[in-house]
Amino acid sequence: MNHLIKIENLEKHYDGFSLAKVNLAVEPGTVVGFIGSNGAGKTTTIKAMLGLIGANGGSIELLGQPVKVNSPIIDQLKSQIGIVLDTCAFPSTLRVKDAGRLGRVAYPQWDGPLFEQLRGQFCLPEGKKISELSRGMGMKLTLAFALAHHPRLLVLDEATAGLDPMARDEVLDILRQFMEQEGHGILMSTHITSDLEKIADKVMCIDEGRIVFDLDKDAISDQAAIGRCRKQDLEAIAASGFFPAGEMRFQSHGFGTDVLVPDRFAFARQFPDVALDRISIEEYMTLVLKGETR
Ligand SMILES: Nc1ncnc2c1ncn2[C@@H]1O[C@H](COP(=O)(O)OP(=O)(O)OP(=O)(O)O)[C@@H](O)[C@H]1O
Questions:
Q1: Distance in Å, CA 86 to ligand 1 centroid
Q2: Is residue 72 classed as helix, strand or coil in its secondary structure?
Q3: What is the mean pLDDT of residues 208-237?
Q4: Alpha carbon 134 to chain centroid, angstroms
Q5: In this structure, how many other beta carbons lie within 10 angstroms of the beta carbon of residue 149?
Q6: Is 123 exposed, middle or buried (0-12, 13-18, 19+ CB in 10 A)?
Q7: Do the strands 31-35 and 5-14 form a parallel or antiparallel pair, or are they unpaired?
Q8: For the range 75-80, what are the long-range contacts, defined as Cβ-Cβ under 8 Å and sequence gap of 24 or more?
Q9: Is 40 in the pocket of ligand 1 (CB under 6 A)?
Q10: Distance 188 CA to ligand 1 centre (A)
């Protein structure tokens, strides 16, 4: 199968920060959520992937083509990739309707009626200047622009940040429609992990420039859990050898200790008296990034 995105061993060094051999893949038919704390390396990965900044090592393939910084191949691929970065990409003096004109010039397969439909759906007045749009409206305009040239791949960096909950649901519906078409895929970086609960197939987490987990969402939503432990439960679990040494992750709080349980079924067989709750992506990430280990 041809990957839409295939990054292997990507390295990028800044003063005080490095991307350390990042691997990332997006296959056709999948939505990959890319999460991590502020400054973890999401935007750096995305920019290097799109050839907007140079990399110090590794390989990048977009739609099966090798990519390097400023490579002309990016221009050729541009028509097949919709990009929404975390800022509105249009000059501030432009009006909303001018964005449609730009699209017509930039993309041979530009779909004016689709742009108009999305503009209406997103309540973007055609006469408004870009400088007069709210942050959320700017993101909606960029998304409409990205979708109206019928890309196969969407790359979204914090694209739903700044949108109210109803607008986010609307955008997620549009992304679902986009995914109904064969061969399409999305890479979306976000801090709003509840959006990923609704739409992602895979979730990748980066921390200090390293990928710390790369999982099918079902491995979190269906397979994993939080064990709600008392002190004596924690000791019994630690002593049992259920988790290899150093791989039990937990966080203590006033009411007891939460343990990250990767396989709820195996855990329940061995510790039937420990209460298990479903785990959200956010809780999973917090336990991996902030939990103690034993
Ligand atoms: N042009 C640059 N020069 C030097 N350091 C940079 C540059 N761009 C980013 N960095 C550093 O790289 C690190 C990763 O930043 P990046 O923007 O990739 O994080 P992020 O995961 O997207 O964060 P956020 O969630 O806050 O958007 C940070 O420490 C940042 O300061």
A1: 13
A2: helix
A3: 95
A4: 23
A5: 21
A6: exposed
A7: unpaired
A8: 79/107, 79/108, 79/109, 79/149, 79/151, 80/151, 80/152, 80/153
A9: yes
A10: 17
Q: How does pLDDT run across 244-289, given as a tens digit for each residue?
A: 999 999 999 888 999 999 999 999 999 999 999 999 999 999 999 9
Q: Could you tell me how far CA 62 lies from the centroid of its own chain?
A: 17
The token duo for 254 is 């006033």
Tokens for 142?
């960029």
- In tens, the pLDDT along 129-146 reads 999 998 888 889 999 999
**Phi, then psi, of 209 in degrees rounded to 5:** 80, 5
Atom of ligand 1 nearest to the CA of 158: 27
Ligand 1 neighbour 42 (Cβ under 6 A): yes
Nearest by Cα to 211 from 285, 111, 121, 287:
285
Would you give the DSSP letter of residue 202?
Answer: E
Q: What is the mean pLDDT of the chain?
A: 93
